[in-house]
Each structure stands twice: as C-alpha cells, then as structure tokens.
Design brief:
It catalyses: ATP + H2O = ADP + phosphate + H(+). It is a single chain. This protein is α/β, with parallel strands linked by helices. Bound molecules: adenosine-5'-diphosphate and magnesium ion.
Length: 658
C-alpha cells in the first residue's frame, strides 16, 4: 500500500523523481529497492569520487553487479548530465544497447527515447537536448567522433564490456578532451594492463592547472558481487535430470544452430510424456525481434522452467535472472581474418578459459548452480587457451585504417594500440587501400576518400542511395567534367540547361552521367555536349574503384531510383560544415558561411549561379577576385541539424532569422 511504502526504510526513492501514479510509484519503489541491493550500490560514493578526481576510472565487477545499468544513473544523480551534457555508455552489441537502455528508462520511470535513449546503426531513439543518458554501440560512438573528434557533448563516456576490445574501442582510447571522463568497465578485464596503458604519458590528457582538470593516473575499483559457488560437471559425468527449479542457459554458437535446437526441443515438447513439456524454450541472439527479446527477460511462469538458448551475448552483455544451470558447448562464433588469403570469416571456434569461467558464472547469480561443460576436463586444463584473441588481432583492418585516417591519425604503423594487430594484417590493409586508390604514395588519404566524401558515402549507404552517391563522389574527385570553354560561356550555359537540376550541381552530374551511359559512353555525345570525354572515362574508373572499396567494407550498392531527397541528405551528412545562407539577393548574390560568416558567391560554372537558393552547401572554394563556391547544392536548413546536431547547436547557434 502506498503510505506504507513511503514510510518504508527504503522509501527515500521519491526524491529522485516523481512517479505519476500509485501503480507507478509501487513499481518504482520496488525497482528502487532492487537497485539498492545490487553489489555496485555499496560503491556508489567511491565510484563518483573516482570519476570526479580521475580522467580514467576502471571498474571491474562480475556480470550482474549493476555496472551497466547503475553507473550512468549515479552519474546523472551526481550532476554529470547538467548544463546540456550527456552521459554515454557504449556496448559492443546492438541487442545489449536496446535491452539496457529500456531497463534504465524503466528504473528511472521515464519513456525510452526521452531522458534515456539509445543509438545503434539505423536506429536513433534519442531526443537531442532531452536525452541525458545515452547507450550506443562503440561503432556509433566512433562515427560521432568523425564529426566531432572531441566528443564535445559528452561529460562522461563509459566504455562497457571493455574485455571485448573491439576495434572501435581500441580506437576510442586514443585521443581525448582533458575534462572528458572515461570509465572503462568490464567483468574480466585485465585491469593492470589497462591501467598501465592509460598511465603511459602519451595517453594522459594534457595537464593544465585548474581545479576541474582530473588526475591523469587512472583509478581502479573492484565492485565484488556475492556470486554463489557453481559446481562444474564435465561431459563424462552422467546426469539424468535437473531436479530443483531454476532456468537453464545453453551456450551455442549462432542463430542457425540456436533455431535448430529450439525446433528440436519444441518438437520433443509436443510428444506426450515428453521431458521438454514443462520447459519454455527461448532463443537469444542479436537481431532477435523485440517481442522475443522481452520474453527472455520476463519472469518465468509458475511451474515452468525457462531454457534460454543463446549465443555468447549472454556471456557478459546481458544479465538473465533466475538462471541456475548452464550448458556450455565450448564454442562461439568468432571473426577471423587471414591476411595471406585476404579473407575474413565468421567461424565457429573454441572459446577461451576466461569465457568458459564467465559462462559458468552465469549459473551462480541467484543461488548455487551447476554448469555442464560439453568437453572434457583434460581439454579444459591442457588445451583451452587462457584468453581470447582481441578483435584487433583477428580482423581485416581495411575499414579501421580508413577510420583512423579520417580522424587525422596518419602514422598508423607507429600507432600505440592496446593490443597491436599483426603487422602482416596492417601491411595488407595498407596495400589494399593503396591499390584501391584510397591512399596515395605517402600513405595519406587521397581526395577519393577525404573525410567529407567518406562520410557522404557512408551516409549514402544508410539512405539507400550509394549507387548515385558514388557517381557524385567520382565527379567531385576530378577537376571538371566540362570542356574548357573560354569565351563561349553562352553556349556552355545553354548546354548546361539540358542537364540542369533544380536541386543543384550534384544532381546535375547524375543527369550527365545517365546521358553518357545512354549514349553508349560515346565520345561524340560528349563533344556535342561540351563534356570532357577523358574526364568521363576517369569518372567510370573511379566509380569502379569505389565499388570495390564498398564491397570490401561490406556495403551493398543500392539505387534510390528517383528519390533525390535521399541523395541530398547523404551529401549534407558529409558536407554539413560547408553550409551557407544567402545574405544579399541579386545577379550573383552574396552568401555567408554559417561556420565563420565569410562572404562567398556561387561560382559561374554552377547551375545555381543565377538561381541563388536561400540555403546551400558547397564542395570547395576557389579564390579569384572573390571567394567562389564550387559544386553547389540547394538544401533545407533542417537537414543540417538532422545531420550534425552537435555542430549546429553547440558551436554555431542558428542565425536568429531561422
Ligand atoms: P552488469 O553490467 O554489472 O553486468 P547490469 O547493470 O547489466 O549488471 O545488471 C544489473 C541488474 O539489473 C541485473 O541483476 C538484472 O537483474 C537487472 N537487469 C538488467 N537488465 C535487465 C533487463 N533488461 N530486464 C530486467 N532486469 C534487468
Ligand atoms: Mg554490463
């Protein structure tokens, strides 16, 4: 009953926020009590103290101790989200991001996507300006870093599950803003090596006198949970049934064998007197539909026993209450790259001892449990490797190198990795990029992939218009596709009208490219239209290079047909920093750049030369008598905030007129 709850010794909860209904209050107080029972709660003050004092804090604690769900809330309660700042928490997997975010929203009694939100690829459930705790995959954070290298909107970044050591997290640790706090957390992190890494002088943020600058030396805190003992059973031992109640967690390798196992158990469950009839069989893997995920987390119905058949996502990323028995197949799916054959594969491979212990530990969450290992003790002791291989050392590094280069980190071979990749892999990646024309002789990114163009292409992949955007990228990477026509400006202008698109030059280039293809790539057609045939041949060539590169990065070529909105948004995603607003109308009106209020004009070669749309973005500037924008596209200013909210809200407030 409500009044009693308020008097309850643990009823202090209402101070944090105001639940709207009695039912909400009850659920909320309940959740609040659960929160306070988590092992991490005893360390709340200590963690907050460390984060305040140290640039980097390392939190180690076993799965289920409350690191992921609680620490971001503690930070918010302690004021780290005030003044428009955001607390970020990264997870290596999308499913974990969604699940943890919705749990935290529930605990805080808020709607997911408001104060608590999440971002994964293709899905942004945040409300900029409102969201203060944001869960995201580390890949997404790395992407944000490309637009905003100092990650200015974040006050604290918690890199969770750091033992997974994805390529992205390794990259994230490289650079930072002095006042940005980093929390590294994990169940099985080798805390010492991490601490040594951050203590090396290169990794420390610059020390500046002033009381808000934290100490560079990292702090380590261990939040012990009170796990229960787990009996280990190897496969020789016969076990006929699991008598006492408790859920079963089975580790298999991937969606296919999980679905197969679920099917088998379900069929068995149909048979009369079947052993599976009291079982609730549930699959768990990334990409599982939302409703099925929820089943996994909902309480086990009375008289039933849940059997969750999972990938290694349940190893550390997700906490499943009620599991008492674990069945460990000893395998997981892992990505492996062979630098000699240059082939990357997802293969089923034996897990490490660290993983095996972690899996067994899942059985001791609520009371003493049992773990059944489907391999022999001898194999465990003598053959199983102690630690897994960090992703960095078993991946194709092509996309990683591009990301680093786009972040302006050029000395890749001399780069200070936490776990350095194999030199062969690195050299292979550089060779591939060189042969694709992405790197030049000095191992610098060529214009083919300058950061803005790369960003445009990556975004095109998401907007489903990569087919069109690589054509645009190819055209932008050459001098000009027009035949130089000194003294014949009129004729050239007339010809341009045949292809001109109201949207601007980029879309015009697409029309020209289409015309060129329809003509059968004819030199005569080019001649007739004042188009440089050699330039068009070069465009075809660069397009081919880009196609190879995209395939290499696992992207799919896709055409958006006639939807130029998608194309224009992708372009803005790359070139948002080059936005201008029309200031004075007239023949060749004057624009000002939004970033620095510089005066610029549309170049006479642009199809928008006489049109002067109110808002434009450009590709480059040429200075002659004036500053001229080349390759100009008309835009809607709302696309800018959509593409780069941090850029247009924090650094440059919108001009009052908008
Ligand atoms: P850690 O990050 O230390 O592994 P978590 O913060 O993920 O721990 O989990 C703390 C507790 O919160 C767990 O014991 C679990 O009971 C609960 N919990 C976490 N996620 C969910 C969820 N999606 N649904 C229900 N309970 C959850
Ligand atoms: Mg966690």
């Amino acid at each position: 009953e409500r009044p009693q709850l308020l008097d309850d010794e643990e009823g202090g909860v209402i101070f944090f926020s105001a639940p709207s209904s009695a039912a909400g209050l009850y659920g909320y107080a309940n959740l609040e009590r659960q929160r306070q029972r988590l092992p991490v709660y005893k360390f709340r003050t200590a963690i907050l103290y460390l984060v305040e004092k140290h640039a980097t804090s390392i939190v180690v604690g076993e799965t289920g101790s409350g690191k992921t769900t609680q620490i971001p809330q503690y930070l918010k309660e302690a004021g780290w989200a005030e003044g428009g700042r955001v607390i970020a928490c990264t997870q290596p997997r999308r499913l974990a991001v969604q699940s943890v975010a919705s749990r935290v929203a529930e605990e805080m009694g808020v709607k997911l996507g408001e104060e608590v939100g999440y971002t994964i690829r293709f899905e942004d459930v945040t409300n900029p300006g409102v969201t203060v705790i944001k869960f995201l995959t580390d890949g997404v954070l790395l992407r944000e870093m490309m637009d905003d290298p100092l990650l200015t909107k974040y006050s604290v970044i918690m890199v969770d599950e750091a033992h997974e050591r994805s390529l992205s997290t390794d990259t994230l640790f490289q650079r930072r803003r002095p006042d940005l706090r980093l929390i590294i957390s994990s169940a099985t992190i080798e805390a010492k090596s991490m601490s040594a890494f951050f203590s090396s002088s290169k990794k420390r943020p610059i020390q500046v006198p002033g009381d808000h600058i934290p100490e560079a030396v990292p702090a380590i805190i261990s939040v012990e949970g009170k796990g229960f003992p787990v009996e280990i059973h190897y496969s020789e031992e016969s076990f006929s049934n699991y008598e006492p109640a408790g859920d079963i967690l089975v580790f298999l390798t991937g969606q296919d064998d999980i679905e197969a196992a679920v099917r088998l158990l379900m069929e068995d469950g149909q048979a009369p007197e079947s052993r599976s009839s009291g079982l609730l069989i549930l699959p768990l893997y990334s990409g599982l539909p939302r409703a099925e995920q929820d089943l996994v987390f909902s309480p086990t119905p009375k008289g039933k026993r849940k059997v969750i058949i999972s990938t290694n996502i349940a190893e550390t990323s997700l906490t499943l209450e009620g599991v008492v028995y674990v069945v460990d197949s000893g395998f997981s799916k892992q990505r492996f790259y062979n630098p000699i054959s240059d082939i990357e594969n997802l293969v089923v491979a034996p897990i490490s001892k660290a993983s095996a212990r972690q899996r067994a530990g899942r059985a001791g969450r609520v009371r003493p449990g049992k773990c059944f290992r489907l391999y022999t003790e001898e194999y465990f002791v003598k053959e199983m490797p102690n630690e897994g291989i960090p992703e960095m050392q078993r991946s194709n590094l092509v996309s990683c190198v591009i990301q680093l280069k786009s972040l302006g980190i050029d000395n890749i071979l001399g780069f200070d990795w936490i776990s350095p990749p194999a030199p062969e892999s690195m050299i292979r990646a550089l060779e591939v990029l060189y042969s694709l024309g992405v790197l030049d002789d000095d191992a610098k990114l060529t214009t083919l992939l300058d950061p803005m163009i790369s960003k445009m292409i990556l975004s095109a992949n998401e907007y489903g218009c990569s087919e069109e955007v690589i054509t645009i990228a190819a055209v932008l990477s050459i001098q000009s596709i027009w035949v130089s026509m000194r003294g014949a400006q009129r004729e050239l202008d007339d010809v341009k009208l045949r292809f001109a698109a109201a949207e601007g030059d980029h879309i015009t280039y697409l029309n020209i490219y289409k015309g060129f293809l329809n003509s059968g790539k004819s030199p005569q057609w080019c001649h007739k239209n004042f188009i440089n045939y050699q330039a068009m041949k070069k465009v075809l060539e660069i397009r081919e290079q880009l196609i190879k590169l995209l395939k290499r990065l696992g992207m799919i070529l896709k055409s958006c047909e006639k939807d130029t909105l998608a194309i224009r948004k992708a372009i803005v995603a790359g070139f948002f920093a080059h936005a201008c607003r029309l200031e004075t109308f007239g023949q060749n009106g004057m624009y000002k750049t939004l970033r620095s209020s510089q005066e610029v004009h549309i170049h006479p070669s642009s199809v928008l030369f006489r049109v002067n749309p109110k808002w434009v973005i450009y590709n480059s500037i040429v200075s002659t008598d004036r500053q001229y924008m080349r390759h100009v596209l008309a835009i809607d200013p709302s696309w800018l905030t959509e593409a780069a909210p941090h850029f247009y809200q924090l650094q440059k407030p919108y001009p009052a007129a908008y």
